[in-house]
Amino acid sequence: ASSKEHDQEDAIDELIASLPISKGLVRPVRSLYQNFWCPTYLLPNVIAFQRHFEAKDKDILLVSHPKSGTTWLKALVFSVVNRSRFNISNTPLLTSNPHEVVPFIGRRSLPGLDGMVESRLLAMHIPYPALPESVRQSDCPIIYICRNPLDIVVSSWHFHRQVARSEWSLEEHFETFCRGEIMFGPFWDHITGYWKESLERPRKVLFLKYEDLKEDIVGQLKKVAEFVGLPFTEEEEEGGVIEDIAKMCSFKTLKGLEVNKSGKLLNTIMEKRSHFRKGEVGDWVNHLTPSMVDRLNNIMQEKISPLGLRF
Ligand code: A3P
Question: Using an 8 Å Cβ cutoff, are 210 and 146 in contact?
């Protein structure tokens, strides 16, 4: 590497070292960077993405707050945009985890993305204001999925415990969540950032809800297909293509596939199966106390509801 590159790396290291970090036992350690809590180990790739990524109009970005349905969204959008190449009998989803077919910005470094063919399908958890300028300026569509924070907090607690193999209690996790120190949090800024943009630029940001997908997957898939400029034809509709995609990407099907049952994800410590837990709406009733529910509902009432968003 040239000395200029070394200087840039040193400057990034210095920047990261100067950021506030999460307190206590929160793992992985997070840094407060541009108003969100970014896992510190992902920051070099996130910063490189912000500074050097050149969005193309044909790129499609999938964004979510962690545990909002990222895995599902990846499988669904991958299937929609690649349906002329693959059907349910030969889709790569039969042999690869959804996270392997759609790269995640943060874990994957930039040079790997340059080799991807159009239309690049990329996923990330970065909040809207922190997206690279080229993404915000270009016409590349962004599909955002959100989920009721009561379910996110329960889902992320189970996930952390499994991945970190820690005895991290639900109470500690809940506190961290309410302080906004959850990965890529505060969750209220994350959700409202994309929500506002979807209202202002509905052709730029499609805002989906996990709960709506659960209720009417066919209707939501049609919306996604239209949004990315690939609406289902009458022939496809009559041929059951939408139902096929819905079934292939369903929790039951994906969880049951051998490829998602064992082994670790890419070069991480994450078990592939930890991305498939229960896949339901409202599991929070089984975990959160009434006072936790009140507290989180109050936060939503204050931060999210005024913008016309309800769960
Ligand atoms: P639960 O922990 O409530 O079961 P993410 O993919 O953003 O990490 O979110 C994970 C959550 O989505 C988990 O929720 C997981 O079980 C659920 N999930 C994964 N695949 C799904 C699918 N195909 N359909 C519905 N939910 C899915």
Answer: yes
